Amino acid sequence: MKALLITFVVVIAALLLLGAGGVARVLFPIGAILIGGLLLRKRPDLYMDALLWSWFLCAFLRRVMDYQAGWKEPSLVLIVPYLMAFVAPVLDFKQILSAPLKSTAAFVIAAMAICYGAIIGITQQSITTVVGALLQWGTPVAFAWWFTTAAPDMQAMVIRSIRRSFFWAILIMGVYGLYQYVVAPTWDVFWLEQLGGVADVTSMGTPEPYGLRVFSTMNSAGAFALVTAAGLLIVADSRHKLSPVVFSAGALALLLTLGRSGWMATVFGLILLATIAPKRVTSTIAVPLLFAMLFGSALAVGPAAEVVNDRISSFTHPSDDASGNDRTRGASSAMKMVSEHPQGYGLGVGVDLISNDGSFSLHDDGIAEGFLTLGLVGGFLYFGSLGWLLIRMLQRQGGGAILTLPAIISLAFLSQIPLGSSNLGVPGFFFWMFAAWAVHEKLPKDDRIDQSLDNKVVAKEGFRLDTSPSTV
Predict the structure, then answer these.
(1) What is the predicted pLDDT for the residue at 341?
(2) Where exactly are the transmembrane stretches of this chain (predicted)?
(3) Residue 457 is assigned to a structural domain of this protein
(4) Would 82 disulfide with which of 135, 234, 270, 329, CB 3.0-4.6 Å?
């Protein structure tokens, strides 16, 4: 099965190198989904590798294919990760339904809320629009639901794949992000130019060297920033000798996204991780921090100085932050609309429902989007399921509280929902995946580190360290 996967990757890469993006655009979605199904049954670890890399790279592949073969919207390439993620819950449907409700209640409740939103959406939106929104809302929940019902050995393989894939993805996406910022590759510029005809892309920066907000291999700077935040926390928890190098590449790319949600999620997560494993975090990020100080000095006089410094200053002078003020006004208007339309607008509601001048998108406030989409009843059910997950990921059998790496990442994502929909779409898939891992983690003893010192440090606070750093 590994040979089949490698062959498929080589074929797609060869087609793109030969300029046959049109052929690759047809072959890739079909082959990826079929191979995904085969891998799940024969090599679940490779299935997880393939699935994660599809989330990391599909937007990049779409841009290259469109650059070679012409703009195509909508693109089937972009829904490949969603369909590959759905392969697991579809093939193991009976296993999911037979699982104890106690372990899957949060996902059942979230699914009920999403189904309600779909019903409302069908009465107000087109079927294709509702289906597209259903993928963004439902795929993360469905995959996490499957993960919680998987056998312990399956979960262990999946977790190792997550660690391995994220480690190398942060290196590759980080390096490409820096290249993207300095060079502004033609396929990325072409994509922005074409996208400008159907959407507002001013928030992405200017399509020229040193002008872009880095989005690397993904579809937006915001999504890339949050995914990178998760990856940096995994790298900080790793023992690999290249961890400082990988962390540096990812952190610099994250800085150039100008994504404050990603910045805050990273800092929040590192603080929590340092609390329970200070030695490991310090050894990983010491060199990158020194490098960041040198880079920051260069940045003060470099081409990115003004935009980065303005973004950072928004934390100390929030009243001067036009973007933040627009979000505040938009959130206030959204809550007023919720009271006027308590049934909600359903899945597929336009992101410009509040403002059509680009000043506020529903994606700018996950709470507002949740209640406007799902209504009061559906919204309370959905966010109630997140609260249930939060309690479950911090409370485990044996009493006391437990703070794990996936729990920290999940908390970092949750903390950003008021600033963006980190529970939906690309970042949403990773949030729900890490939440499911945090709730049902069952790792082999040999995949854990020596926790004796750190456990003594946190025992007084009522937490028990239970992380599983990878040597990758």
Answers:
(1) 87
(2) 46-64, 76-97, 103-122, 129-147, 167-191, 212-235, 247-273, 285-305, 371-391, 398-417
(3) no
(4) 135
